[in-house]
From TrEMBL:
Keywords, in A-Z order: Cell wall, Hydrolase, Nucleotide-binding, Peptidoglycan-anchor, Secreted, Signal
Keyword Nucleotide-binding: yes
Xref: SUPFAM superfamilies: 5'-nucleotidase (syn. UDP-sugar hydrolase), C-terminal domain (SSF55816), Metallo-dependent phosphatases (SSF56300)
InterPro entries in the cross-refs: 5'-Nucleotdase_C (IPR008334), 5'-Nucleotdase_C_sf (IPR036907), 5_nucleotidase/apyrase (IPR006179), LPXTG_anchor (IPR019931), Metallo-depent_PP-like (IPR029052)
Provenance organism: Staphylococcus aureus
NCBIfam families cross-referenced by the UniProt entry: LPXTG_anchor (TIGR01167)
Biased composition annotated in UniProt, kind: Polar residues: 411-422
GO CC terms, sorted: outer membrane-bounded periplasmic space
Protein name: 5'nucleotidase
Length: 468
């Protein structure tokens, strides 16, 4: 800003930080405005037009004559900002909102309307591929479902990710997870197209795999299931949390919502793919965990993740390939199958170095049982053969490659239509611990996402030079 300071009248910052109080303060839009407004070198007025938390700020927020504006979500409002301009100085900045219903009778600009219509038609034509000709399953992907509990759609996405990782990554995937906040729509019965899948996964996130120590897997699931609880229909349930992890069929998580946050996990069992049996997690072992690039970068507060990762194709491609040939009958249920209340009915004797539950030595709490009583996934519906897309980028990312990775020493990062740009600081860094949480809107139209400009930029209104 200081480099161009003498050439501008005012600054307009386009950001995607949000003001959700659950987000780290230093990653919030209001924090950015406060810091800028308190900088003694910045005497010229600043407006920050923000997003991410989808907050409706009817009259914005003013900090020392600088303004923060946000319109909400789903094109429900039009943002308007007025200001006084005199003698090269901007003052009296006033954000406000116009409800879209109040402009229904306004005649659109013909040229602009034609551009938007053409873009929409092109996008729909490019995404018209039929993935499932006659889907018989209602896949649940609504906000109140995917952010509070296991759903069949979350299971299917995680299964698709594991199937891809097993076949395409250099190290075969042990299990996969995906954050509920990244799931933005349901899949209805009937014909399913690629357009529908992009509605479900609209951010363009890619599949990624990282190595995670067993103890960090445990910590991650404590974080996943750590949201405050509430009462619904006489039952204790989790409140909405975009970081809730949906899991693939190779892992089981047992928990107790009556316990305090951070101490709810009773047991975690991971499928031994050689024996076909579930085994208690080994807290000292390193697991190959597939997830999306946002989560792998520490998004939604997963500071235990990060470090080098292997990346692949976009999640909607992964899901499309899987759904074409998968046995979808196993998803015809609304009952939890993988994230289960209580404790395992029977559990295999932990191997040396394993722990039956965190904080207890191997074998002290576990009861040895016969092989005939071991929980065996073979009794579950067998996974289908999967036809996967032929290649992936296959690169091992250090998290620092490319121009859009991370900007050192600043809270402003480049973003490109994803939940968050691929920001992967070394494990345990300050950057990683402060990554923002998933946004809170209910759904995002692919057509809207197509024309959405997501990112943080700086727009300087350049003073018109006097004629010489």
């Amino acid at each position: 800003m200081m480099r161009i300071y003498k050439d501008v009248d005012t600054f307009v910052v386009i950001s995607h930080l949000g003001i959700d109080p659950s987000t780290q303060e230093t990653w919030r839009g209001d924090y950015l405005v406060k810091q800028l407004s308190q900088n003694p070198q910045l005497k010229k007025r600043i407006t920050v037009i923000d997003g991410h938390s989808h907050t409706v700020l009817q009259n914005g927020q003013i900090y020392n004559d600088d303004a923060l504006a946000q319109t909400g979500t789903a094109l429900a409002n039009i943002g308007k900002i007025t200001f006084n301009y005199r003698n090269g100085a901007v003052s009296n900045i006033k954000p406000s909102l116009i409800n879209v219903k109040d402009v229904e009778n306004v005649t659109p600009n013909k040229a602009l309307a034609e551009q938007i219509n053409q873009a929409d038609q092109t996008f729909r034509a490019q995404t018209a591929e039929v993935i499932i000709p006659n889907n018989a399953i209602d896949f649940k992907g609504e906000r109140d479902d995917v952010r509070t509990r296991e759903t069949n759609l979350g299971n299917a996405i995680a299964d698709a990710m594991e199937a891809y990782g097993v076949k395409n990554f250099s190290k075969k995937t042990d299990f996969a997870v995906t954050n509920g906040g990244g799931i933005r729509a349901s899949i209805a019965k009937g014909k399913v197209t690629r357009y529908d899948l992009i509605s479900v996964l609209p951010f363009g996130n890619t599949i990624a795999q990282i190595d995670v120590k067993g103890s960090d897997v445990w910590t991650a699931f404590e974080h996943s299931l750590g949201a405050p609880t509430t009462q619904k229909d006489g039952k204790t349930v989790l409140t909405a949390n975009g970081g809730l992890l949906h899991i693939s069929d190779s892992i089981r998580v047992y928990y107790d919502m009556n316990k305090p946050s951070g101490k709810r996990i009773n047991a975690i069992q991971i499928l031994n793919k050689e024996t076909g049996k579930f085994e208690n997690i080994d807290l000292k072992r390193v697991y190959h965990v597939t997830m999306n690039d946002f989560t792998a970068s520490g998004g939604d507060g997963y500071s235990m993740f990060g470090g080098p990762r292997e990346e692949g194709i976009s999640l909607d491609q992964v899901l499309a390939s899987y759904l074409k040939t998968a046995n979808l009958a196993k998803y015809d249920t609304t009952e939890p199958q993988r994230m289960l209340l209580g404790k395992p009915a029977v559990s295999e004797q932990p191997a040396k170095g394993q722990q039956g539950s965190k904080g207890s030595e191997s074998g002290k709490d576990a009861q040895p049982i016969g092989k005939d009583k071991v929980m065996n996934p073979a009794k579950q519906p067998a996974p289908s053969k999967v036809v996967l897309l032929p290649t992936h980028r296959g690169t091992v990312s250090s998290g620092r490659e490319g121009s859009d990775r991370a900007l050192e020493g600043t809270a402003i990062s480049s973003m490109s239509g994803k939940q968050l740009a691929n920001m992967s600081a070394p494990k345990g860094s300050a950057h990683e611990k402060q990554l923002p949480k998933t946004g809170t809107d209910q759904s995002s139209s692919p057509a809207a996402m197509f024309v959405l400009v997501a990112g943080i930029g700086l727009i300087a209104t350049v003073r018109r030079r006097k004629a010489s």
